[in-house]
Amino acid sequence: MAIVQDWLPASRENYDTLLWWWQFFPLVASLQWVTSWYGMGKTSVNSILNIPGRIAWFTMEVPGFTTLLYIMTNLPAQHGITDLPWQNKVLAALFVIHYVYRAVLFPIIQPSMSPIHAFVWIQAIMFQLCNATCIGSWLAAYGPTTQEEWQAQPLSVLRFSIGLVVFYVGLASNYFADEELREIRRTELRRQQRLEKQGKTINKHYEVPQNGLFRYMLFPHYFMEWVEWLGYWIAAGVGCAPARCFLLNEFFSMLPRAVAGGKWYKERFGEEKIKGKYIIIPGVY
Questions:
Q1: Which of 4, 82, 111, 194 shows the smallest number of beta carbons within 10 Å?
Q2: What DSSP assignment string belongs to 246-277?
Q3: Global pTM value
Q4: Which residues of the chain form beta strands (DSSP E)?
Q5: Contacts of 112 (CB under 8 A, 6+ apart)
């Protein structure tokens, strides 16, 4: 059953059209270089259009993996495919694993979340729908759909195995970097609660994360997400255009925020405090 005829799930023609346009998303993401707030990773300004953080995050991230699951469930039958290769199922599962954490668990376990402006919320939903449609359609019908097609690729099993390892290294490292940031927030909340009980003025406190990969860089959670999706692309194969687009789109979305964030760290704490740390790419920047 199609939710939107020829779009959800997408016909082959519409999939090709969407994928062609999707490769230009980095141009849209690059607009962050000239914005004064979203390029810093801030998701809201003082506005009546702000949405509570947890609600906004959940509702804008969940469409990703639910759309992919819907496509994987419905599109194969439309093309006479009765069973997909295990590689397609594993790649779908990796996508779902990432977004179950990112969309469902992340907003639950965050000590606090800033509001998200409706404009950012809508952009995120559109990103999720386009990305999941491209990847889900490739996995469900428009990429390799038989073992023979997978085996025809050079070093298919070895490449897939390497990709899995890289993906899980990125996933685990991303989680632990997030957890370090959460611990800083928990400590700050406890400090604020103590001051509040003592009737003292509460000023927001910032600090430079120091544990784990934060010893060497300021934004390891961004970098390791790139590593994660690099592993995904390796596993899917260099010919998987949706996986390549996803990695590039993530890179061009996150890089402006990291650069702006690095400037903020320098202005806030001084060069000496972050001396020896890369911003986001170890050994490069």
A1: 82
A2: HHHHHHHHHHHHHHHHHHHHHHHH-GGGGTT-
A3: 0.92
A4: 50-51, 116-117
A5: 53, 185, 189
